[in-house]
Amino acid sequence: MKYHQIDRDLFIKNRTKFMAQMKPKSVAIFNSNDIYPISADSTMPFAQHRDIFYLSGVDQEESILLLFPDAPYEHQREMVFLKETSEHIAIWEGEKLTKERAFEVSGIKTVHWLQDFEKILFEMMTHSDTIYINTNEHYRATVETETREARFVKWWKEKYPAHAVAKSNPILQRIRSVKETEELDLIQNACNITEKGYRRLLSFVKPNVTEYEIEAELIHEFIRNRSKGFAYTPIIASGNNANVLHYIENNQQCQAGDLILLDVAAEYANYSSDMTRMIPVSGKFTDRQAAVYEAVLRVKNEATKMLTPGTLWKQYHFEVGKIMTSELLGLGLLDKADVQNENPEWPAYKKYFMHGTSHHMGLDTHDYGILTEPMQANMVFTVEPGIYIPAEGFGIRLEDNVIVQETGEPFNLMRNIPIELDEIETLMNS
Description:
alpha+beta
């Protein structure tokens, strides 16, 4: 891995939290992701399943984590199963985790080779009543591919039909949403790498540069700082492209006078950052662009203040909608009649700001978190309002990542990334 090894104490704490919420005499199983084929012998780059990584730190394919807090013997309470490495594998694929290295990474003393999994699982099943399966229940999830986890669940149900079934996801949704100090440091590092990429662009962007050249500058800076690359598919949207919320073609030339919407961010050690900034191709905002920009910035700043313990996500977005409505009235994009006659299910402001303001962030860019439960300290959220005006040829979105604090306003992980208009113009023209 490119990243520095993470202190295994983080994964020990994470497992302790998970096992504390398991039912008596229960086993929990977590599988790594597959390496997905493209065609012929080509594959996608491996990306570890975030749950097994969160609980073990194991960042390798064909790995399984088994947790059994009530196992008869202490050495059976935490076990990891790995693909057995060999001299042949070392030559053709590179070094894999040995049993000793797996302990160093995870803090799990009992490490088996994968070929022993079924035999050991059978023994664990004779001592347990319930198995926790790890289904994907994220509110944004759309899964069309059968995962390694899904194949395991099918196999297990046929093999052990008499056991009760429980779900690990509700536990993980809660514990993963509240970050440990080590996790906050990793996310801060991802944000710092993002900052380096963004600052690199401010002296690079000029009229006629292409969106893909900008993408190339970013990936260069991210990788040279130990990131695997983008935390998500980058959006580099000049001019009217910014009004397509998930524009990812990044293949157009940037014209003088246009703005570029940059929804781009680095990952670090599988942890995400998530940034959006706007820069003028010519190095200076027009008066109208500046007016809309400042309106979005005011909404972002006011919305950020509301991310405090006890806040409910739905009520938060309702309040942000009222602030955005006021700004749109000030810009002349809405009038009082629009607001008075609005559909409560789709308020007038949604014509220009149609997405949510915040989402959880962490190991996943859209991270785990139960939206019907109050916000807590050490949750990490994005704050990303926008105003999109196709008729005027531009859209503006601004986004920071913040940590909810016990008291007071959130801590901004992107506090050092230029966002004020005058600072951006100064840096672009220096």
